[in-house]
């Protein structure tokens, strides 16, 4: 694969350092392109600069799709608004749902896009769309946002995986199907997520405890020998890719404590809230503090409230309110918000009208999402829908506009080309879709 | 027994709560726009009460003298309305969260309101403990608070015993508590939990949902019935078993429940005993099956008759003579076009009852 990028990085399987690029990377935000040179990290000055320049992204993936009316865009007076009131925020004239008082108090630090307009009303396709930033093209699997960012921002020698996916829930209907699929697409397995959280984290500790140290070392020597031989014999990119992933997992095991919820500070755990989503959101902050470039936090498919929308959103939204407030505040206090992009979104919104089962239906036509941090202004609200929230009346934005914004905010060329053997030319974002300039810094 | 719909009147907004005069001539509908509407069930003439709730109006009860209507709302407020003038005569802030449901003691002296927000209390989203009493009882004459009882929120339903002595309240987790409202200690005289009304989704919806949405004491006061929807692997399918259970409330032991083969799926929200004391009705929404309104034998719980009203019934009340049934209804508006008016989403229906 050849990626034509204004800030080109090394192909994943050629860990070489180019001095000119290295120097450029230090100042140009493409530091990751040089990060495969292990020796550099033994230099404390370089290591400090690396940490400082590293950009991060936390995606709070609200799978199932939250209601915009009960979160970012209440419509007081509309028959479909629901029972929760709206409340003023720190941004004059902007109201959030009354379920979000904490976020309302830091609205000047958040950006809202209130005019997302996408085309997929079903979960499976919409998850793909909002995870990959473009519609499916049969035969070609576009990498997910996490995989793309892992490739663009990740460090090859980092102990932590470049794409960490925290989700304690094995199931999730359509999301379960997505989770079992191909996240990294044509980028290869080394850019697939390492899935942790809940019971998925336990193996990090159990493996270490169950195998004696000398036995583990023997196994590792044998594994290295066999896999190197396999790579030589087969000249297999797949094998290299899988070995890279294995190496990452090995480093991960050494960092097991970072994934232990019980080792997180008790006061922090209390602030974020007791639910599994909140605890993993706190873990995402902890991982970013320790250098993880991309962390995606999900909790199954809890937001798909076709039934009992208000009865469940009354619990989920306050949890999200606490999570976003604490996450943004903590990152800012730690000096990390300017280098960390925080995104909270689902795969679409929910219908302005209720169904007979006390629920709201899928609604891609007009929905809202929040993003703040790295590369973005603060306190901006862009786009609008009509009085009932039925359709976008101002500044419709697609998934491609959104992805162009994310890449631009992180200093990554959104239109870089992927030249893949035997495949058409792809771009990180197709159609030269414009980023959402209202919120870009 | 046979139920036949004889009348239906449109209300602009979905109806969550219903009260009727004993003869059924007047119905009072608590609606999602916060208003309470008076409906003449003979002519269909509708009038709105002057004072609205600032969120959904969730329930209303009519005092035995027929002069005062008390409504509760998702604004946590109880409003006393003069039925004749349609004006509000008293406003009481009962809760910081919703009033989910009201119950009036048969002697008309007490009105109970139940509340509680479902908030995450644990890793698996166990409900957090209450931050205010989940059950409050007020004097209908003075509006004074008579009692506050603890429960685990959210508490969805409540009912008084026929002798007005006992109050039952049930929550999302299927926990039922019964208090003697004349006792001073505030402790429940009985409590138990039925796991058959609550879901924790194992494929989706990894939190709790459901609960006991309707309660009613048997006419002899010895049994308590609760209704709702059975547990689901995927709660968002909304297709749990239509469920009622009957308990000896003093012991908490289950007496019986809806029989296999006699139910469809969907949330059941309301229970009502026919004045003959021999039958009870359960109604709600049908997800799958052949009915959403059914009458059961009070003696053995077997299905007597049923019908599909093609809409979600939220409340049902028999007239005192047992010849009619008045129901409140929510109709989904369907897709709404930008700038277009919303269709009427509420209904009040009247059914004739042939025993």
Descriptive terms for the model:
heterodimer, A: 441 residues, alpha/beta, Alkaline Phosphatase, subunit A, eight-stranded mixed beta sheet, three-stranded antiparallel beta sheet, 13 helices, 35% helix, 15% strand, globular, B: 355 residues, mainly beta, Methylamine Dehydrogenase, Chain H, four-stranded antiparallel beta sheet, 30 strands
Describe the overall structure.
The complex is a heterodimer of chains A (441) and B (355). Chain A has 441 residues and is α/β, with parallel strands linked by helices. Chain A has 13 helices and 17 strands. In chain A, a hairpin with a 6-residue loop joins β14 and β15. In chain A, α8 runs antiparallel to α9. The longest helix of chain A has 25 residues. The two termini of chain A are 32 Å apart. By secondary structure, chain B is mainly β. Chain B has a single domain, classed as YVTN repeat-like/Quinoprotein amine dehydrogenase (Methylamine Dehydrogenase, Chain H). Chain B has no helices and 30 strands. In chain B, the strands form 8 sheets. In chain B, strands 1-30-29-28 form a 4-stranded antiparallel sheet, with no helix packed on it. A 4-stranded antiparallel sheet of chain B has the order 2-3-4-5, with no helix packed on it. In chain B, strands 6-7-8-9 form a 4-stranded antiparallel sheet, with no helix packed on it.
């Amino acid at each position: 694969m050849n990626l034509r990028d204004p800030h080109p990085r090394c192909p994943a399987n050629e860990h070489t350092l180019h001095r000119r690029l290295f120097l450029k990377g230090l100042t140009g935000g493409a530091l990751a392109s040089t990060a495969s040179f292990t020796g550099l990290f033994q230099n404390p000055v370089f290591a400090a600069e690396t940490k400082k320049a590293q950009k991060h992204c936390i995606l709070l993936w609200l799978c199932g799709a939250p209601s915009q009316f009960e979160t970012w865009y209440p419509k007081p007076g509309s028959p479909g608004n629901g029972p929760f009131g709206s409340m003023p925020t720190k941004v004059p004239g902007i109201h959030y749902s009354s379920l979000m008082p904490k976020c309302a108090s830091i609205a000047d630090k958040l950006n809202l896009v209130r005019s997302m307009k996408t085309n997929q009303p079903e979960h499976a396709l919409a998850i793909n769309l909002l995870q990959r930033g473009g519609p499916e093209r049969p035969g070609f699997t576009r990498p997910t946002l996490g995989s793309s960012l892992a490739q663009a921002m990740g460090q090859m020698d980092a102990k932590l995986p470049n794409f960490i996916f925290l989700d304690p829930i094995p199931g999730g209907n359509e999301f379960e199907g997505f989770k079992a699929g191909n996240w990294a697409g044509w980028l290869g397995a080394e850019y697939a997520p390492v899935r942790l959280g809940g019971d998925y984290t336990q193996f990090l500790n159990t493996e270490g405890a169950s195998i004696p140290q000398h036995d583990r070392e023997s196994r590792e020597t044998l594994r290295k020998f066999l896999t190197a031989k396999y790579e030589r014999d087969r000249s297999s990119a797949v094998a290299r890719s899988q070995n890279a992933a294995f190496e990452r997992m090995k480093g991960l095991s050494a960092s097991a404590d970072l994934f232990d919820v019980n080792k997180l500070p008790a006061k922090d755990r209390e602030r974020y809230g007791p639910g599994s989503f909140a605890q993993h959101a706190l873990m995402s902050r902890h991982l970013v503090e320790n250098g993880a470039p991309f962390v995606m936090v999900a909790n199954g498919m809890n937001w798909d409230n076709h039934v009992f929308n208000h009865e469940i959103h009354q619990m989920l939204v306050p949890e999200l309110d606490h999570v976003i407030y604490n996450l943004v505040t903590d990152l800012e206090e730690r000096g990390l918000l300017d280098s960390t992009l925080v995104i909270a979104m689902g795969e679409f919104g929910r219908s302005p009208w209720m169904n007979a089962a006390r629920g709201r239906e899928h609604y891609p036509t007009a929905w809202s999402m929040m993003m703040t941090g790295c590369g973005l202004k603060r306190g901006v609200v862009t786009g609008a829908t009509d009085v009932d929230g039925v359709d976008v009346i101002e500044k419709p934005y697609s998934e491609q506009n959104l992805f162009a914004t994310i890449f631009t905010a992180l200093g990554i060329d959104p239109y870089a080309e992927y030249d893949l053997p035997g495949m058409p030319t792809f771009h990180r974002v197709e159609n030269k879709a414009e980023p959402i300039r209202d919120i870009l810094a | 027994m046979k139920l036949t719909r004889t009348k239906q009147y449109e209300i602009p907004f979905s109806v969550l709560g219903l009260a009727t005069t004993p003869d059924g001539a007047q119905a009072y509908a608590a609606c999602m726009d916060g208003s309470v509407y008076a409906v003449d069930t003979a002519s269909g003439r509708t009038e709105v009460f002057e004072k609205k709730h600032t969120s959904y109006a969730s329930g209303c009860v009519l005092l035995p003298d027929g002069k005062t209507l008390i409504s509760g709302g998702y604004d946590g407020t109880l409003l006393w309305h003069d039925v004749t003038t349609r004006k509000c005569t008293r406003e009481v802030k009962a809760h910081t969260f919703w009033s989910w449901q009201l119950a009036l003691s048969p002697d008309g002296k007490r009105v109970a309101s139940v509340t509680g927000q479902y908030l995450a209390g644990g890793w698996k989203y166990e409900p957090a403990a209450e931050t205010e009493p989940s059950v409050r009882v007020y004097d209908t004459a003075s509006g004074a608070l008579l009692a506050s009882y603890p429960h685990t929120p959210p508490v969805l339903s409540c009912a008084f015993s026929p002798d007005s002595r006992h109050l039952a309240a049930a929550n999302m987790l299927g926990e039922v508590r019964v208090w003697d409202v004349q006792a001073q200690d505030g402790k429940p005289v009985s409590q138990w939990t039925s796991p058959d009304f609550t879901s924790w989704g194992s494929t989706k919806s990894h939190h709790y949902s459901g609960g006991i949405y309707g309660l009613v004491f048997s006419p002899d006061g010895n049994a308590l019935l609760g209704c709702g929807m059975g547990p689901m692997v995927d709660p968002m399918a909304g297709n749990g078993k239509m469920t009622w259970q009957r308990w000896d409330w003093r012991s908490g032991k289950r007496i019986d429940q809806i029989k296999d083969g006699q139910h469809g799926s969907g949330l059941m929200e309301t229970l009502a005993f026919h004045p003959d004391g021999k039958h009870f009705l359960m109604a709600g929404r049908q997800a799958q099956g052949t009915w959403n309104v059914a009458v059961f034998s009070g003696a053995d719980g077997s299905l007597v008759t049923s019908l599909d009203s093609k809409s979600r019934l939220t409340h049902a009340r028999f007239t005192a003579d047992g010849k009619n049934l008045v129901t409140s209804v929510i109709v989904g508006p369907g897709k709404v076009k930008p700038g277009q008016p919303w269709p009427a989403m509420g209904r009040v229906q009247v059914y004739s009852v042939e025993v």
